[in-house]
Amino acid sequence: MPTTGVPGAVAPAPADAPAAAPADLSGLTATPTGAFSPEAARKDVPILHRTVNGHPLVWLDNGATTQKPRQVIEAVSAYYSAANSNIHRGAHTMAREATELYEAGRNAVAQFLGAPSPDTIMFVRGTTEAINLVAQSWGRAHLGPGDDILVPVLEHHSDIVPWQLIAEETRARVVPVPLTPDGEIDQAAYADLLSARTQMVVVSQASNVLGTVPPVREMTALAHRYGAKVLVDGAQAVAHMPVDVQELGADFYAFSGHKLFAPTGIGALYATPEAMAEMRPWQGGGNMIESVSFERTTFAAMPHMMEAGTGHISGVVGLLAAIDWLRGFDQNAVAAYEQQLMTYAMQAMATVPDVEVIGSAAERIAVLTFTMAGHDPASIADWLDRDGIAVRAGHHCAQPALAHYGLESAARASFALYNTSDEVDQLVASLRRLGQSGQSGQPGQGAPAQQA
């Protein structure tokens, strides 16, 4: 599909086509201007200006989902108001407009990830579906008895369970890579576990529970020496640091839009052309075929072969707007600010009696998972919620990582570019009041544990 170079614009109609009133798509993309500051980001995010339980909202649950800037909200609304149509299969004006937006989103994702071509990007519902897609499409075709899939103990359940399912089917093995006491992947153990049997390594670029940022590029290069593929889970990384999949050397890279200030239900999977050539259809239906008869079906070229049915078109529009919004800020400045905020938060949390932050990796994103002696994590979250402070509590879909510290659950404060040191101060002050309150906070009291 030809592009005009402006997301949301449409290709010109043939000269003999009847004139049509153009849709107003001006609200579909908008990029902030000026240098980065958390205050500038906050101004764009409406929900950050609401109150919860009579207090201004302090959103410290960004590891579960990020809040959406008005540019994303307006883009989705403008799409449904002016350009709603199915894509790829229609010859009318609105179908062309919707298709143009959808493919502009694919192009934006490719640029955002440093991918060599939009044709290396597949749209999915999120990181979980992307990992399942790789396990079912690539894994079923390539794994067999005696093959190893290396997965660090650090990982989210979405990096573990899909591979357990395919390993059971193919008689391969999921091999855990241990952690060091500070919450880093044990690189010596990883090197020892790699062998000619290793077919896949699955690793997060940033941990959702400890914030650990492993040396992914080095781990990938080492895996490739053994002929193994590497899938990088970028769900927690993309909102916090610049990503270049070619520099990382990843064979696959997955992320979720809702953790990148975009809508829920949309995400993307990058794969190298070589890896794509080894993938087989996973889901069948419309859009992923070239021709169908009862005698034989031929499939569309990649990436469309992996996108059966109608895609989440409005989700792609929102993802496009979110990437435009985020790229309007200097990504290195964002990363530096978040590191400063994390350092401030670590120092502030250290002053709260009975609070222990879990993990102390040298490289980490702004995620603070913690316990407080005498208080169940769910009760901690309930107490903070009374002060308008949103944190997560539970096992965070990372039970092996918590078990490494002898824990079944913990509380977690996770930060984004729109959080401030004042919000850290409010978190610390509320925890101090909890410690002084005399409440026991035993399991079963307060809010139910939250797991994402």
Describe this structure in words.
It is a single chain. The chain is 36% helix and 15% strand. With 452 residues, it is an alpha/beta fold. The protein has 2 domains: 154 residues, Alpha-Beta Complex (Aspartate Aminotransferase, domain 1), CATH 3.90.1150.10; 227 residues, 3-Layer(aba) Sandwich (Aspartate Aminotransferase, domain 2), CATH 3.40.640.10. A 7-stranded mixed sheet has the order 4-10-9-8-7-5-6, with helices on both faces. The protein has a 4-stranded antiparallel sheet with strand order 13-14-17-16, with helices on one face. Strands 1-2 form a two-stranded antiparallel sheet. Helix 7 links the parallel strand 7 and strand 8. Helix 4 runs parallel beside helix 5 and helix 11 packs parallel to helix 14. It is globular. The N terminus is likely disordered. It catalyses: (sulfur carrier)-H + L-cysteine = (sulfur carrier)-SH + L-alanine. Pfam families: Aminotran_5 (PF00266). Belongs to the class-V pyridoxal-phosphate-dependent aminotransferase family. Csd subfamily. GO terms for molecular function: cysteine desulfurase activity; pyridoxal phosphate binding. InterPro entries: Aminotrans_V_dom, Cys_dSase_SufS, PyrdxlP-dep_Trfase, PyrdxlP-dep_Trfase_major, PyrdxlP-dep_Trfase_small.
